[in-house]
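User: Can you write out an input/output pair for a complex, sequences first and structure second?

Assistant: Here is one pair. Inputs:
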Amino acid sequence: MTFIIIFLMKILYQTRKKRFFLSMKSVKKHSPLSRLVNSSLAFLLLFSLSLSAQQADVANGEKLFKANCAACHKLDKKLVGPALKGITDKREQDWLIAWIKDSPGMIKSGDKLAIQVFEENNKLPMTANPHLSDQDIVDILEYTKGEEAAPKAAPVAQEVDPGVERGKQIFKTNCAACHKMEGKLIGPELFKITDKREPEWLKAWIKDNNALVASGDKLAKEVQDSNPAAMTPFPQLSDQDLDDLLKYFAVGDLKEVALVTADASSEKIFNKPGFGVIPTLGVTILVFLLLSLIVAATTNKKLEEGEESTESMLKSMIFNPFLRFLTIMFLLLGGAWFFFGWLMQIDVNEGYQPIQPIAFSHAIHAGDNKIDCQYCHSSAKHSKTSGIPTANVCMNCHKSISEYNGPLFGDYSKEDLDNEIQKIYDAVGWDKENMQYIEGYEQKPIEWVRIHNLADFAYYNHAQHVTVAGVDCQKCHGPVEEMHEMHQFSPLTMGWCIDCHRDTEVDLTENGYYKNIHDQLAKKYGVEKVTAAQMGGLECGKCHY
Amino acid sequence: MKNILKITIALAFLFSLSSCWGDKSKPNYQYMPDMYKSVGYETYTENPNFSNGMTTQLPVEGTIARGDVPYEYENTNEGYEAAKIDLKNPLELTEANLDNGKKMYDIYCMSCHGKSGAGDGVLVQREKFLGIPNYKDREITEGSIYHVIMHGRNLMGSHSSQLTTKERWQVTMYVQQLRTELLK
């Protein structure tokens, strides 16, 4: 399966590359010399929009759009000017060309539609673009028709410029702690920030925003005041670094997004449930029953043939008083043994696996991400109980991690798991869009179900085992870092406690405080190493008082 | 023949008894629950006596826990700058303090900041968190380190609920040691 998918992806990738070369060629065509030829062909092109030709238009259009329009316009959202997606459906092409070339002139000349548009947009004048040719404007309009070509075009630009890749690395190591490409984190989102601010200003700001503010830059002051968190200066970044960084901001990583979705879909194929355990078991039982039926049928026939002799033997066996006595004794003893076994398992909760309010996976947190047990269960080192973390501990990481991107497990889809994270936000009142706590939110406790619960007449202390004895959590709780859903691993019976106390040797080397006592005990028992039991780990009063 | 039937019935009955805790999502039977469950409220139980229904309560406002010293610097940029200059570590630089600092660092900081403080912890390598700074790239003092552990800064949250005052200072001490080693 994997091979097939890798193969398919390879083919896809190669075809994409081919397309990229095609589009590059056609971009080159737009040199001033060939423009004449092109514009004469424009008519033909408009009528017979072949796929590759359309893409060429769009690629050039996108470039021009970014260079000339994007400071004030977005495709799908109002910025300074209106959103431009689908503008060709609303207005005549000739009108649009005239408007883009010289909108102030059109308003002056008294064009009714032009005046109406001017007034609709708060009387903000649009810059005239006399340098754009008709063909350029047609390209731009082609680009505004739809975004379908845009993601294809973006990776093309990415492959062209190795600086983008470098910029991404710089972003990851320096900026990503506070910024995301899309969506607010501590700081604002940075994707297409280059459209909003001048590159020179951005560079100065990143290098040392405090100096920029001090120099009396109004915009800098505004930005700093609008965000309560101060941005760290990055004097260590060179001009080349900053150039690459800005390139990355402009392009983004659409390519990666495409790859991730491909990954997720292949993951789904592999995660499809196969032939489950229960149907297999059912089939096995059925086969077994059938076989035993066949065996029974054949043996019955044999019995019928030699009926008389076997029946008399059976009768004599059944009515033999000694044999009867033996059977009854056997039954009674067996019954007592089973009954005792049943009594012994009362309140032994080995394997107890309640349904928790949040599908928290220890396998992901402690296993994959290697977060120490005590990071969350921090009171284990000082207290009797190893506490359930309060939600602020969850939020230490989940402020920024609001969706699950790892491999799926159980029956959960990505949406389900994102929802599980949302449950923390619902409990504490976190607004993940604006990255802040909702004021005046009534917080709700997360009602976890306790799994490990000793009877009240037994005393157990976590600090004594974790901090003093240095016992690993896994010794009692099992391989928690492999459990997606937590369950009780150990029986937690008294016999189980005592077994461990008998076997565990006390570490005498790194415990100076108790050295004298350890020495005395070792002498008393005539051994070199002392076990927990020899230190009084079996005394009743240690745990029952 | 009757006996055999009886035996099987008895065995089946006993077998069903011994395995009657079938639903593992519910706790098993208890002999006498009133001996297992305390009359008093336990740490995380519900509690009808409080308005929010929980046994665990926040300290009463305006009170100070025994042995606790209140932290006076506010969680603002000004507070950070003030702590950076004025706040000093009350602990002596000893082997024991550094040892425990390392222990605590390995539990509470290493996942992001990395073993050596270079900002390359497991969570960074797995791209869960990005842009964790190298200690050597930042002008940090013992005061500012403590302040950040106490209140958090930007995306880093407060770790004051997981570490005691003494442990926070020990971690601070260890972070400073890591930083001097990185600066070498």
